[in-house]
């Protein structure tokens, strides 16, 4: 095989006419190796048999021509450095990387921001286990059932003193943002528990509600329990 390639290479490097005749260039098959190469399919890779890399830049490349012979007609290939000056080295002095942390001991800029890595502030907002059949869907079903959850025939104008009269578990009214609701039917459905909700019975609960869970859509949840509107005495 090696001798075959040697003969093939020598035939390639010999000076030949610009338009070579494939028949003339055909390799001479060495009969010595004919047995070894009987099964070999020729016509694939024709380069050197060792592992040396090919010449780079290519022997006929414009880059090589430009560097060895500057007076050549071929265009000179500029290096990256010649085409464009390197960017200035960035200064770190004016930069703040990541989230600034109060102390170096907190783990650097990839540490969780201090506002979110603390445990919850208090156990104030703990959910309670609701009795079976008293989940949010059960409450939605009760509202839809058409059952009277108001306890009044018409919407009322409620003064603070009227509100104060309805502060027992079986008859609890509370005002939120100017609207008065009968909260008694909702007590067993309240995820925060009856006790918490009873804290606002008979009075304006807007502030406590907002400080506990302002995101809860109270108007929608208690629409079927609307008594009326809070008015001055
Ligand atoms: C009638 C008005 C109210 C309605 C409709 C209501 C509704 C809800 C709802 C839907 C939740 C679950 C919230 C969630 O999963 O994110 C909840 C939880 C809770 N509510 Fe209320 N609530 C009311 C009034 C109040 C009031 C006045 C207090 C405080 C005195 C209170 C204290 C709590 C607590 C402690 C929780 C459990 C903790 C939590 O979910 O984060 N709620 N309430």
Biggest beta sheet attributes: 5 strands, mixed
Strand order across the largest sheet: 1-5-4-3-2
* Strand residues, percent: 5-15%
CATH superfamily of the domain at 136-230: Cytochrome b5-like heme/steroid binding domain
Low-confidence stretches: 15-26, 28-40
What would CATH call the class of the domain at 136-230?
Alpha Beta
Write the element-wise H/E pattern from the N-terminal end onward. Answer: HHHHHEHEEEHHHE
Gap between N and C termini: 113 Å
Mean pLDDT: 77
Helicity level: 10-25%
How many separate helices?
9
Shape: elongated
CATH architectural designation of the domain at 136-230:
Roll
What fold name stands as the CATH topology of the domain at 136-230? Flavocytochrome B2, Chain A, domain 1
Total strand count, please? 5
Q: Which quaternary structure do these chains form?
A: single chain
Radius of gyration: 45 Å
Q: Structural class of the secondary structure composition?
A: alpha+beta
Distinct compounds present:
protoporphyrin IX containing FE
Family: Belongs to the cytochrome b5 family.
Biased composition (Polar residues): 8-20, 60-72
Protein name: Cytochrome b5 heme-binding domain-containing protein
GO molecular function: cytochrome-b5 reductase activity, acting on NAD(P)H; heme binding; metal ion binding
């Amino acid at each position: 095989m090696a001798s075959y390639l040697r003969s093939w290479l020598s035939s390639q490097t010999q000076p030949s006419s610009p338009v070579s005749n494939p028949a003339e260039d055909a390799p001479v098959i060495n009969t010595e190796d004919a047995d070894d190469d009987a099964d070999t399919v020729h016509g694939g890779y024709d380069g050197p048999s060792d592992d040396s890399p090919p010449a780079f830049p290519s022997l006929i490349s414009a880059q090589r021509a430009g560097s060895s012979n500057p007076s050549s007609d071929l265009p000179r290939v500029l290096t990256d450095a010649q085409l464009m000056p390197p960017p200035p080295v960035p200064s770190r002095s004016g930069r703040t990387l990541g989230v600034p942390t109060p102390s170096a001991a907190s783990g650097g800029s990839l540490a969780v921001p201090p506002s979110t890595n603390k445990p919850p502030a208090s156990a104030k907002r703990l959910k309670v286990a609701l009795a079976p059949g008293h989940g949010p869907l059960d409450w939605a079903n009760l509202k839809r059932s058409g059952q009277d959850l108001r306890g009044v025939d018409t919407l009322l104008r409620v003064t603070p003193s009227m509100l104060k009269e309805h502060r027992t578990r079986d008859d609890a009214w509370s005002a939120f943002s100017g609207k008065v609701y009968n909260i008694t039917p909702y007590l067993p459905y309240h995820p925060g528990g009856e006790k918490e909700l009873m804290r606002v019975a008979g009075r304006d609960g807007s502030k406590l509600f907002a400080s506990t869970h302002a995101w809860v859509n109270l108007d929608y949840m208690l629409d079927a329990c609307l008594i009326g509107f809070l008015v001055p005495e």
